[in-house]
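Notes on consecutive records. When two proteins share a document, each keeps its own sequence and its own token line. Never mix them. Below: protein one.
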Amino acid sequence: MKGSSDFTLPLQGPISDRQTVMVDSDRPTEFLDCGLVVRSIGYRSVQIDSDLPFDQARGVIHSIDSHGHVAEPLHRPVGADASLLYCTGWAKRGAVGVIVDTAMDARETGRTVLHDLAEAELHADPRVTQKPGLQPILSILRERDVRSVSFADWERVDAVERSIGKQLGKPREKLRSVESMLSAAFSEVQRHRNGQT
């Protein structure tokens, strides 16, 4: 990359993970000799549900604390409770930090979810004790003749990826298409249908 020109853009604001870059076109162009240029395009969360309280300016879901509790939804159905709704990572903090920061944040929010559920069960909170759970969803999927991917199905995908990876001298080789993942997930069913038990 020798001879390429670029602007050196200083960070502005107090030293923190919230510093910003301000473009100053009056600064002279600097020439930097380097062997590698990495361009970070950044990331911005988007509002996935119009009822979620979302800060468009910062690109984050509005959380009320550092544990990821989401603020009240904008249009909440009667009886719905936001206190068991969470966000984590860049959707909570914005596009700052590295993978480890996001992983640690996810763990923190996960611990909060487990703590909140344990507290709700301990106090016989109807938001938790009277939830129908997974069965209604499975019933709807069966009615619509949709085959969902179970944990056992995922384990078959995992085994196939590890097997292919082992042949290539790697821990795993990621299946890249939905079709190949579903084929691996449902491989037992396919073998049974073909008479290969």
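Protein two starts on the next line and is unrelated to protein one.
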Amino acid sequence: MSEAELSNLLPTMKDLIVPAIIGAALWLARKVLPVVSDKLHKVGKRWVISDLRKIRSIRRCPFAIQRQIAKEGALFNAFLTITVIMLGALMLLSRQMAFKEQLTYFSICMTPVLVLEWWWLIVRGFNEQLLQESSRVGPGFKRIIPNREQSARRSQARKQRQAEIAKTMSMKKAEVRVVARRLA
């Protein structure tokens, strides 16, 4: 083989650029992806922990639970309303437009709908978890609404009844002591 034929077999700069770019991209992905996935994992973990803390703080308060349920209902109604409005606007605006313009309008009009749906689904998942945790409240449930103040007459009658009960209990203890002494 002559030198001319051998020089045709050697790779040129044009042939080396694509593999070099692919190699650099793979190396960069290998270095960057673990860091990014670790950061995303930490963010997700923090999000779950903050949700659990919020659930723990409000799971015993029926008013806070009702507020969260009302919030979910309001977000769902807003989602449905804005979906109907945006789809109606989209149908009216894009009647006689080119397909690319229709796609542009569709992406612009549907962005708020998708954001609202995402927000509603997050609140819905939170509420499902909250309701599961609130069902485990059990006998330690404390009433948040303060009790009604009782009248002075009723409080006095209660104190008298408690004094009578204490008196009879002390008399029974004294009788037990006397009987125990007799038996001994």
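For the record: The chain has three domains: 13-59, 61-137, 154-183.
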